Amino acid sequence: MENIWRTSTKCEGGQCVKARRVDDDVQVRDAEATELTFSAAAWEQFVEGVKNGEFDRETAVTADLRQAGAFVIAEPTTTPWNSLNARLDGPAGLHLTVFQELGPASDEAPVSGTAPESGTAPESDKAPERGGS
Fold this sequence. Notes:
By secondary structure, the protein is of the alpha+beta class. Among the domains are: about 15-50; about 55-105, Signal recognition particle alu RNA binding heterodimer, srp9/1 (2-Layer Sandwich). Helix content is about 15%, strand content about 30%. It has helices at about 40-50, 55-65, and strands at about 5, 20, 25-30, 35-40, 70-80, 85-90, 95-100. It has a four-stranded antiparallel beta sheet. Strands 5-6-7 form a three-stranded antiparallel beta sheet, covered by helices on one side.
């Protein structure tokens, strides 16, 4: 990165930060042109943390719940609906699903067993009928 403002290739909608290297520092600015300056070493640590998911809200919540005693059944996983979901068991049989929306869902075909477009659930997914009055 040289003295030219760069935007992430993942940026959508124009509301992303821009960054540039100036001497031994990295400058970052938002859409309103507010600038922050970081040392190159601090910036590299931040970028590595982003790549490792350290700042993903869902990942942090899962780690906090694990530390509080919950048992992780499923680590954070990206779903076909473009959310990051994790499943945990807490005390007293409490089942937890935590999620973070990642953006608009993709236009991919639905996963087997999901509700069809009509909004009705497949027979295998319907709740059993309860006794009438």
